[in-house]
Design a protein that fits this description.
The structure holds two protein chains of two kinds. By secondary structure, chain A is mainly α. Chain A contains 20 helices and two strands. The interface between A and B is large, with 92 and 75 residues.
Chain lengths: ~500, ~700
């Protein structure tokens, strides 16, 4: 095996990039781009080096604060590594989209890179203490990016975003302190083993009394805010729409995945039986997230708010899959097949949604550059005439979001429905409404923005130029690749899914 | 009548032609990919690529058909499958694959042949369009997707191609996207069919979960083979329907969306906003037939149970629904077609109606009956649509039949071919293919054990069909010309395909007569014999008589009202004068669109507003309350008070933003406020950890 501490390197790299970026004001975007590309390459190297059996590999374990059970423990399986690739990709896209930052570009790109570092740290840390620092650290650059470069109502949006996720984090922190108090461990792997053997529950009961369910709810609250799960999502539309578009890309492409990742890495392994016990209300909330998210998107007049709600809807499918998996099982073979399908689907959906949503916000950011910041859904019309390539490529991204087979969005959703239907047919049956409403929303956006006669003022709307095409073409290519050959990702994800499911207990 | 079923030897090993079957859809899709990157001026190359690729596909399809035919004539039931794993989740493979059997072979030949003619015709029709290359890109992509639906042996692959068909249909209907009506029609088509598709998707995941396979045929382990069907029948779903029945109904919902069955037919007439070749290709011959083909493909599932209980196949719950929906659609759309004035809209409602016949045919008579009408209809309806395109072209983009008239003189080839198509659609006995296929449906409906009502609905629908087609032809081709421009015949590149289709519309009847039911024998894998005495059967003679009466009633009545009358364009319709209230209701398409507008669509917008309101008001208020609590608590805490809530925080941000030289400020301390925040948080965390006192 490679003895280089790759996971540490990938996390430190953007921090170094951020420092350099602060000093090189004029060239800070270039610095950020180089850093972003290096991180992406490194994440691909990590992906290649994953262990084949789906377990956690590339471990780095050092004592840090031994008296507190705090270790510097890093490691990734296919889930973590895929999220690293996604974070690197989305960061690079965000840096690409941010080519007109006039105020303090050095600071802007430094914060973007710090956010990237925060994402990397969150997806690699395996000790709660260490993980939690990154979880919070990523919040701070995001907050400042909204606060300093955001739209006219950025103040309240940033504060709401910060306060909201902070409340979730406090709940998360308290729950983990209790668990540490009961077990003396903060290591995820260690705790998951305890939970799988059923000891965790007993230890908590012995030292703190019957509070396991409260701890579960605390942890879930932390993640529910981040993903978000309705009704903890109200910070999102404001934050997404007020943030500058490159930052919105990072929020939806990267940070929203932290919550889903946390549910899979932490909540399900540690609190399986508890989540299974409150599965029905959770499923109802997930279905609500899907359906109401899609419908709320239909009522929006601002492109960024439309896709903010559409993101809520798409992440709802991840939540649906995750909660549906948490079912008390014996040795029911057909259930385990469904669980495997659903979890594969969820992980794929995480990646695909990140890619597609980031691409859509990239296009919206291009629309804003060209229109002087306008993004009302009724402001435009007929743009396909002056900008056919723009319309075509954005159309592909939009149809990917709609879940068209042949593009990346479909595979994850199909697998999730395949898995969820046998586990909870009612939830699946109501959730398909989300697919319908999303289609209506997206086609309405195309209708209003790209078709019809061209108004005078947009008659010379510039099409994507060479550099921009070059920037987005690989992303569009990836949408096709993952839509047609999802096996290239699934072949690594599936062993991890099987490994996880074999080690979980509900 | 029916031959004794001879047990054909199954032949399942994939021959080389079956292994290369994927080329048939792949070639047009590949061509579309190349065309998509061509520059607009490369018109000739674009259309040549599209036509060339589909031409090769046609040749391969013919070869494949010959292979199946050869097997059939030697007593083999050819069903060759090629399956492969697309991905593996858990231990379960998600498999795709394709199948070569009589059903797919027949359909492949039809789609490639009719498609090819329409492609050639399009080079004339779209000659002056500035987006000519893009048109051929979409056409080729559509053809590829449709052919994918045809060869699919995996319900997932079928669904994927199915959605791709939906996409290309969306693109082609909205081809003239700068027209708001075209853009709206495209969206309507996609969303209406997607209503059916979400049920279809549920049906797929249910079938997959229940049988563990996505393949139709897999050497006995496929989802619609005996073993899996047995399992599906045992499994009771809710409301007393077997799982097979429930899945069948879900799949039928998808088919109803694509094939414009009630109540999801509303998109099809609006889809006429697309260029006319698109209407011919998509909305007559291929895409709308995909739903019928789907039901034919999963027929073992739809009819599962009945055969096991020794009953007629058409008596299962799923097929019962198919029959009733089909018969209602057939009658209902024919009624509306009577009172339309747009030449393409009449044909659109006619298509909806004929699709109803096909569905009803599948329900009451089985695969061969429904498919035969699908094939004959594809030819004569493509002919009619392309004929109407030729007319529209000839009278300079006029589509209102009241502003036409007398065109038989100025457009003789179009007139003759159109008349052939019209007579085939009316089901004029003996000489036209439409008669034989419609006759088979009526015959089966007459013998349906559950109810005689669908039969009467279909018979009445047939009278109306003859009536509205006579009305249309009278308006367009007879009487005096009432338009303003000078009508002219279309170029050869457009009329030649019309002539070829007209010949087919007559000749195709031969393969499905009662005396030589070759088509049925081929699809059902038993030998076909020529038995002329079938024509002497009293039952058949009765039916022939009925058909004569239908045609005479319909055409006679139509001619009596409209023939050679040449009314002025502004004059009310003859029927309108006779029965004003009925006319108004029919002319307004029974107010179905208005009904949807007032219910489904209103609900959609209302519910969107509610969702948005809940978000802003309810959740927003709760959050505000929580935030207030948080702030109140914060006031008690000096640290938070100073740094987070009180605006010092905000002010600091403003200063950083407005000033220059970030590092300087971090050095002089202001930027450290935030780092301090973090540091304090970490210290608190550490303090709590230590306090909890674990070694």
């Amino acid at each position: 095996m490679n003895s280089l501490p790759l996971l540490t390197i990938i996390t430190v790299l953007p921090v170094i990039g951020a420092a350099i970026s602060l000093f090189t004001r004029r060239h800070s975007r270039g610095v950020a781009q180089v850093t972003g590309i290096l991180c992406l390459l490194l994440s691909l190297v990590i992906w290649i080096q994953l262990p084949r059996d789906g377990s956690i590999g590339l471990n780095e374990l050092h004592h840090w604060v031994p008296s507190l059970g705090v270790q510097y423990h890093l490691g990734v399986d296919a889930l973590g590594a895929l999220m690293l690739i996604l974070s690197a990709l989305v960061s690079l896209m965000a840096i690409d989209a941010a080519h007109r930052v006039h105020h303090e570009p050095g600071l802007f790109f430094a914060l973007v890179l710090l956010l990237e570092a925060g994402l990397f740290g969150t997806f690699t840390a395996l000790n709660f203490f260490h993980w939690f620092i990154f979880w919070e650290l990523s919040l701070i650059p995001a907050f400042f990016l909204i606060k300093l470069w955001g739209g006219p109502r950025r103040g309240p949006a940033a504060t709401q975003f910060f306060v909201y996720t902070m409340v979730g984090s406090v709940a998360l922190l308290l729950s983990f302190l209790a668990i540490y108090h009961a077990t003396g461990s903060m290591d995820f792997i260690n705790l998951a083993e305890l939970a799988a053997k059923g000891y965790l529950q007993h230890q908590v009961l012995a030292s703190l009394g019957p509070v396991m369910m409260w701890l579960t709810i605390g942890v879930l609250a932390g993640f529910a805010v981040k993903v978000p799960l309705a009704p903890f999502h109200t910070w999102l539309p404001a934050a997404y729409s007020e943030a500058p578009s490159p930052v919105t890309m990072l929020l939806t492409g990267g940070m929203s995945k932290m919550g889903v990742y946390g549910l899979i890495r932490i909540a399900l392994p540690l609190f399986g039986p508890q989540i299974a016990a409150i599965r029905t209300p959770l499923l109802i909330l997930a279905v609500l997230t899907i359906v109401m998210g899609a419908w709320a998107a239909a009522a929006q007049k601002d492109l960024k708010r439309v896709f903010a709600y559409s993101s809520v809807n798409h992440l709802g499918y991840c939540l649906l899959g995750i909660f549906a998996i948490a079912v008390h099982t014996g040795a029911n073979v057909s259930d385990s097949a469904s669980q495997a399908a659903a979890l594969n689907g969820v992980i794929l959906q995480m990646f695909n949604h990140g890619l597609t949503a980031a691409a859509i916000f990239w296009f919206i950011s291009m629309i804003q550059f060209r229109s002087g910041g306008l993004r009302g859904i009724d402001t435009f019309g007929g743009l396909r005439m002056p900008a056919p390539v723009f319309a075509g490529l954005m159309g592909i991204a939009l149809f990917s979001s709609l879940g068209l087979p042949g593009l990346n969005g479909f595979v994850g959703e199909f697998l999730i429905f395949r898995g969820v239907f046998p586990l909870s047919w009612q939830a699946a049956a109501v959730s398909v409404l989300g697919l319908l409403v999303t289609a209506a929303v997206i086609l309405t956006v195309i209708l209003k923005v790209f078709t019809g006669p061209v108004p005078e003022r947009w008659a010379s709307f510039p099409d994507l130029h060479g550099g921009e095409r070059l920037g987005i073409a690989p992303v569009i290519g990836l949408m096709f690749l993952l839509g047609l050959l999802p096996q290239i990702v699934i072949e690594r994800v599936n062993p991890t899914v099987q490994y996880l499911l074999a080690h979980w207990r509900f | 009548m029916m031959q004794e079923a001879v047990a054909f030897t199954p032949q399942v090993d994939a021959s080389s032609i079956a292994r290369w079957l994927w080329l048939i859809p792949a070639l047009p899709i590949f061509a579309a990919g190349i065309i998509s990157v061509l520059k607009q001026p490369r018109r000739k190359l674009a259309s040549s690529l599209a036509i060339g690729s589909l031409g090769i596909s046609f040749l391969i399809a013919i070869t494949a058909f010959a292979h199946v035919l050869n097997g059939w004539s030697h007593g083999y039931a050819v069903r060759e499958v090629v399956n492969f794993s697309w991905l593996t989740v858990g231990t379960q493979a998600v498999e795709l694959g394709w199948v070569l059997d009589p059903l797919s072979a027949v359909m492949l030949v039809m789609v490639t042949f009719v498609g090819l003619l329409i492609f050639i015709y399009s080079t004339g029709y779209m000659e002056h369009d500035e987006n000519y290359t893009r048109f051929f890109c979409f056409l080729a992509l559509f053809a590829g997707a449709m052919l994918g639906v045809v060869i699919a042996n995996s319900i997932l692959l079928l669904f994927m191609c199915w959605e791709l068909v939906g996409l290309t249909s969306y693109l082609l209907i909205g081809f003239w996207y700068f027209k708001p009506s075209a853009a709206a029609a495209a969206r309507k088509a996609f969303i209406t069919t997607r209503v059916g598709d979400i049920f279809f998707l549920l049906g797929i995941v249910w079938l997959f979960a229940q049988t563990g396979t996505l393949l139709f045929y897999d050497h006995g382990a496929g989802s619609i083979e005996t073993l899996a069907l047995g399992g599906l029948l045992v499994h009771q779903s809710h409301w007393g329907i077997t799982a097979a029945g429930a899945i069948g109904l879900l799949i039928f919902a998808g088919a109803a969306g694509k094939s414009g069955q009630l109540p999801l037919h509303v998109w099809l007439p609006d889809a006429m906003e697309g260029p006319t070749p698109v209407s011919a290709l998509i909305h007559a011959a291929t895409m709308v037939a995909a739903g019928v083909y789907l039901i034919a493909r999963v027929y073992p599932l739809m009819s599962a149970g009945a055969i096991a209980h020794g009953e007629a196949p058409g008596t299962t719950t799923a097929l019962m629904v198919v029959t009733w929906v089909g018969a209602s659609t057939a009658l209902f759309a024919a009624l509306i077609a009577v009172a339309q004035n747009d030449i393409k809209r009449i044909l659109a409602y006619s298509t909806v109606s004929q699709l109803g016949y096909m569905m009803a045919g599948l329900g009451v008579g089985g695969v061969a009956v429904g498919m035969f009408h699908l094939i004959t209809h594809a030819f004569f309806k493509a002919l009619l649509f392309m004929g109407s395109g030729s007319v529209i072209h000839g009278v300079h983009e006029e589509q209102d039949i009241r502003r036409m008239g007398g065109l038989r003189k100025s457009m003789p080839i179009t007139f003759i071919t159109y008349a052939v198509g019209m007579l085939a659609l009316c089901g004029v006995p003996i000489f036209f293919s439409g008669f034989w296929s419609k006759d088979a449906i009526l015959e089966s409906a007459h013998g349906w054990p559950l109810s005689r009502a669908p039969y009467y609905m279909l018979v009445f629908g047939a009278v109306l069909t003859a009536f509205y087609m006579t009305r249309q032809v009278s308006y367009v081709f007879f009487g005096q010309y009432r338009g303003h421009s000078h009508p002219h015949e279309s170029p050869r590149v457009m009329t030649t395909p019309l002539a070829i289709l007209a010949v087919s519309a007559v000749a195709l009847g031969v393969i499905g007569t009662p005396a030589w039911p070759w088509f049925r024998a081929f699809l059902e894998n038993h030998p076909a014999y020529v038995e002329m005495h079938a024509f002497a059967e009293p039952a058949w003679l009765m039916l022939l008589l009925t058909s004569f009466v239908i045609v005479i009633l319909g055409i006679g009545h139509g001619w009596w009202l409209y023939g050679n009358k040449s009314p002025r364009a502004e004059e009310p319709d003859a029927l309108e004068k006779a029965m004003p209230p009925v006319w108004i209701v029919l002319a307004n398409r029974l107010y179905i669109d208005e009904l949807y507008g007032a219910t489904v669509i209103a609900f959609y917008y209302w519910w969107a507003k509610v969702a948005d309101w809940i978000d802003r008001e309810i959740w927003g208020d709760i959050v505000a309350t929580i935030t207030l609590t948080f702030k109140g608590w914060a006031r008690l805490n000096k640290f938070l008070d100073a740094n987070m809530v009180d605006g010092a925080f905000d002010k600091g941000c403003e200063e950083i933003y407005n000033g220059g030289g970030v590092l300087a400020r971090i050095q002089n301390g202001r930027g450290q406020i935030y780092l301090r925040l973090l540091a304090v948080a970490v210290v608190i965390l550490a303090a709590i950890l230590i306090w909890s006192g674990r070694p």
